[in-house]
Design a protein that fits this description.
Blueprint (H helix, E strand, L loop, with lengths): L6 H28 L3 H6 L12 H8 L3 H32 L5 H9 L6 H14 L6 H5 L7 H12 L3 H9 L4 H12 L1 H16 L3 H6 L8 H11 L4 H31 L5
Helix pairs in contact: 1-14, 3-14, 4-8, 4-11, 9-10, 11-14, 13-14
Length: 275
């Protein structure tokens, strides 16, 4: 039998569709602007469709303004940080959740307390240390502050590892598995949705990171996409078609990443426990 029509359902769908349109509108507008020439953008309404469609802005960014190198640098930075940071976070979270050692809980809460410290507070000390070590304008200077785990990731993974039944881990121990073997063969496989979600969160966070790369580099060889995009707004007198093309280039990999991991993200949100 068909469910009877309810006015509340209609109102709900109208609100959801309106929210969807409001959310997507800036992205669609960015794409439409990126496909226009500067002359079209200046002479037509903002919402007008590009006529004719042009890819000149994308070609100029990649060929003339070094955006291909900026994209490769950003990709290398993000991949390195994601692999090392998530790996370190998994190891630390498992130790805090399942291993016993003196001062474990005190150390965990002290580490978690660093979440309360704004990042801007540590920026000047970090810059002083890295500049003194000769790491300005280097790849390692960009990635080093973010490599050794994240308090948020460690907290999330620790809570998940605590929810794994002890009998499951004890069975691996009885089979002769050590702590690392148990982590790799038991804890990690049942935690894939959470780990995949952390991969996406970490990748998006560092793909969009602007302040630290701006401070530790001075452009040139190690300029990342966010800094390169910001420089277009001043260096080229606010050429918005060029800026929107840069925004589209920056956004596309993130959309692809979400499409790859969307099932894992939904599964991580649906987890209520492990049976």
């Amino acid at each position: 039998m068909r469910r009877p029509f309810r006015l509340a359902d209609t109102v709900t769908y109208v609100v959801l569709i309106a929210g969807l349109l409001i959310t997507l509108a800036p992205f669609v507008q960015s794409l439409l602007t990126a496909l226009k020439t500067p002359e079209q953008f200046a002479s037509s309404p903002v919402t007008a469709l590009p006529n004719p469609v042009t890819l000149q802005n994308f070609g100029d960014l990649l060929a003339r303004y070094g955006f291909l190198r900026a994209a490769l640098v950003t990709l290398a930075v993000v991949v390195t940080i994601v692999v090392v940071q998530v790996s370190c976070s998994v190891l630390a979270a498992y130790a805090f959740a399942r291993l016993r050692f003196p001062g474990r809980d005190l150390l965990f809460w002290a580490y978690l307390g660093t979440l309360m410290v704004p990042a801007i507070v540590t920026t000047i000390p970090l810059y002083t240390l890295f500049a003194g070590a000769g790491l300005r304008d280097t790849f390692w200077g960009i990635i080093a502050p973010s490599l050794l785990g994240s308090p948020y990731a460690v907290f999330l993974l620790r809570q998940h590892f605590l929810a794994i039944p002890q009998d499951l881990l004890s069975a691996a121990t009885l089979d002769g598995a050590g702590a690392l073997r148990t982590l790799w063969s038991v804890a990690v496989p049942v935690s894939r949705p959470i780990i995949a979600t952390l991969v996406v969160i970490t990748a998006v966070s560092h793909w969009n990171n602007f302040l630290w790369p701006l401070i530790i580099t001075s452009g040139g060889d190690w300029q990342v996409l966010t800094v390169a995009t910001a420089s277009l707004q001043t260096q080229y007198n606010g050429n918005w078609t060029l800026v929107m093309a840069a925004a589209v280039i920056s956004l596309t990999p993130l959309l692809a990443l979400f499409l790859v991991f969307q099932r894992q993200i939904v599964r991580s949100l649906a987890i209520r426990g492990i049976n």
